[in-house]
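Page header: ASSEMBLY MODEL / two components / 875 residues total.
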Amino acid sequence: MAAFILRRLGVLGVILFGSSFILYNLAAISGDPLEQLRLSSEPNRDFLIASLTRELQLDVPPPARYFLWLKGVFGIFVGNPNFGTGRDGALVSHSLALAIPVTIRLVLAATIFAIVLGITIGVITALRQYSRFDYAMTFVSFLLFSLPVFWVAVLLKEYLAISFNNFLRDPHVPLGWILVIGIASGVFWASIIGGTRRTFWIVFASALSIAIALVSTFSASGWFLNPGLGPIVVFGLSVGIAYGVTQLSVGLTNRAALKSSLTMAALALIMYYPANWVFDNHAGSISIILMAAFTVGAAVIAGLMFSKIDRMPIIRTTILTALLSGGLIIVDKFMQTWKPYMETDAINYRPVPTIGQRSDLLSTDNWWLSSLDIVTHLFLPTLALTLISFAGYIRYSRGTLLEVLNQDYIRTARAKGLTERTVIMRHAFRNTMIPLTTIMVVDFAGVIGGALITESVFGWSGMGTLFRNGLLGYDLNLLMGVFFVTASLSVVANLVADLLYSALDPRIRVGGA
Amino acid sequence: MIFRKKIKDEATGSTSGENAIVNKEVEGLSQGQIVRRRFFRHRAAVFSLGVIIFITIFVFTALDFRLFGIWRIHGWWKWKIDDIPELRFGDCPNDTVGCPTISFRPRFLGGSGFGLGDHPFGQDDIGRDFFSLVMKGTQRSLSVMIVIGVIGGTIGTVIGSISGFYRGKVDAILMRFTDFIITIPAIIIGSVVGYHFGNLGAMFLAFYLGLFAWTGLSRLVRGEFLTLREREFVDAARVAGASNRRIIFKHILPNAVGVIIVSVTLLMSGAILLETALSYIGFGVVEPDVSLGLLINKYQDAFTTRPWLFWFPGLFIISIALSINFIGDGLRDAFDPRQRRRISKKERQDSATARKLAQAND
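Prediction written out in full:
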């Protein structure tokens, strides 16, 4: 195993060396970094040219200069990497350190949403193969495949952000929209749940009326200006989560799991006010992490208390329920912050920004306000990226699950008399996840390199912007710095994907032919 | 609840019956005929094929076109991209200028009847006819797409089949070479090439992008060759004394053609999005040339006042990419023998009655 990893790393090192050498020279011969200075008429022109030449070592021919750059990069092995300086005199490693977190923030949420949503819908379409929902989702995923991200981004800015901001000026949903939302949710739920014509209409009618009731209550009570869940709704939703998670993971017949999950829902109700007290007085990511750890601990204890045999799945279920319920409390806290956030001068009741990564005008030391600011700025880019990338996951998970469902071991599982839930969730879904996991890893690495367009549309300054600046200014060190990060990420991701595959699927052996 | 229907399906569906129906259908047909039949049964794919053919003809005949640089064919559209007609004032909503004259509303509904008018897609800032600009941009995007498809498809097929067929050292070297190309993200190489050589023309850009776009395809083709070369018919051919060349071209390649065609179509739908995205961020096709991505970039700020400058190029990108994706889906269904057509209830009943009748007659 170790020999395999070392050999792979060696080959990958050679590959990285080759591609960086080619890119460096390609970029170097294609333009002259001093061109603008030569044409300028500033009095100290010659001095500027000389100093830039000295700083960027432009007197060395590109192939040799590449090795100077490489020497700096090799410093990474002795803990002192040197990516050189950019044209503006800033250290490239410094610019990268600023840009990488921004890009990760941009793509992380979108990737997670895309994976969760895409796999969920993909699994449902596979289980309902050839249904109307399947056909509709196939069409939607093809449509999303074919959308250019910059086009979607402009549309979202115009129709979603600006109209939503306008809507908040007078947050009353008109009757027509209430009906449209109601019918849409009715059709959605009815086609997902399916069944006979009678159940279809029952589901349709109830989803329609629930949606209409919810939206009109929100509209009438000014909920959009001052949203919040409150302890009762948090408890209700947590009970729902407890039932849902238990049903999906071990089945409702497992009373121990259900009981310990419901305990977690009750815990969410009890902890609602204490948690809010902590949020108000000790805001910050550290306290949230500590509370998450506490939640997991409580879940493990509850799981151990309620179960006697087969403890692991029960504890897993309880932890999932507990974390989701805890997440609800955090969401609720964000909702409570919404009103003060909108009342600040920087926002002034137009909370969804179309550009930038944070409001510069918002000067506050309230952790929740600045976090909410980040969240609102993430809203549009995340939506655009999610829309674009989840289509792939729908297609892929649908295809894989259909293939798995045709396998003999699924037939065997059914023949043994296992419940359909166990067959789907334990036997089919887990095997579907094996190829999906490896795709996710590679995809995430690719997304970081490919955020160039999204960043430029939404005016974020992350890796894409650095790359763009490097390209436009013939700034080789900057360009190569970005390339080094993205290329190493993709190489490492491919290696990790291979190792994961062999870890998840015992039939695949790493290091073999 | 979700799962109950599945069991029912499983219980009622008799696999042997389905096989019988499918087998009977393809009796006495060649592989090509079977594939064509299956493809034409995919309604969305056939429709998309029609759309693509229509768009291609519509777009390429609209403007003046030079065939092989000699014959000049006159386009049917009255404006050229460098004509500067007078800007249309008045009759436009919100006091804008140069709004589109295309109309779909019939006269009896209060519209001006179906017609293109003088400037169906409106006019740009200086009055150039936007319809001709979009036509030109679509021509660019379509040809870039085809060039990338042809070059990427050829390189991918050659590299994939050689490494899959010969295995061993050749395979190791070629696959490391593929890894090497994969490390360079497509968008990065596209930007470097597009930014520095974009002024050499769209075809040059397409050529370069094609040189880097074949990696996924070559891996798929390699996998296909690796399995096919172990099959009995290849052994039979080898025992009969066929040369490597003959085995590759006569025996393996025809069987791998499905995988190749399908991935080339997907490569092409990706290519059109890559080209427009690169042009949008300014690293692809550059002015004075026209491209759909470039048009969108240029007029995105005008969206609030003159949205048509934004809508029409986008609609062309989406309809092309969507059609190509559907054609690819149709081809996949047609070539993949595992993908069986859904047997309708009526056919199943028919076959059941036929079987009963046959038993009764025995």
